[in-house]
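seq:
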Amino acid sequence: MKKYSLVVVLFWSVFTYAAEKDSLGINPYQNYFRSLEYFEECDACGCSASGGSLGFSSMLNTNFVGIRYFNQRYKSNDGLFSDSPWYEENFNTIQVWGRIPIVKKVQVSVLVPYHFHNRETVTGAQDISGLGDLTVLGMYTVYETVKDSAVFSHSVQLGAGVKAPTGKYREFSNGSVNPSFQVGTGSWDYIFAAEYVVKKGSLGLNTMGSYTVKTENEKYYRFGNQFNYSSTVFYFLNSDKYVFVPQLGVAGEVYGNNYQYKQLLRNTAGDILFGKAGIEIGRDKFSFGANVMVPINQNLTGGRVEAQYRWSVNLNYTL
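struct:
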């Protein structure tokens, strides 16, 4: 009971802080393969990002509470002239996150982000900060092989969730090259996810996909629906005191067009494919993780926005 009270206190503290700040024994890692990246959420950049393709769940902790920082770097160009300058955009997020078992085969994950973004513009530097959109995702295990019943173990999960408009949406970004320079979308969005994991011994492969249906906000702006996919190879390395899990894979994101007053906005759709690598290190009930992603191929907002890289670090405590 104390552990779950800790989760509530941590989540509540983030909400309180953001409201004031906004001015604009048993190895706990043995079930790792059931808790990889469920979905990625990012409106072409960092608008309502809950982690981008860096993942939704911990690599090592099946059920946990923790804190994560991730950074996304982009550059944008208005495209008016062949020699138009490129401007840097820097998206930062600190996130309290957790994954809690509800009943057998059902887990609920919660993300509470705080964003602080900055960018260059033709008129000077611009920054924005505040509480982001709260995300809740439930996953149900529809199939899982009996332990030690086969050479390969399999796990299939299906789930659904919601992103609530707890982050403030500001209209000033609508006419910008990158309309995702926000801390929230101002809309209720609905998430559908699926995950398949196959594992043999210490080696495993995680494949996932998710689709986010985005709705119109109070300012009559709607970000395009989003499809995400990822495939990650991982391997367990055990020592007397530590567990190491290196990972290597690819991740992709596909964005639909944005709409304003129900009118399609040109050059707001796009897609991107990343290569990614990372590692998590666990000892007792604690784990530390690091992850980096670089674009392989991309076409965002008609070529006017380019992703440079993404990276993250996290510290978790196993419940």
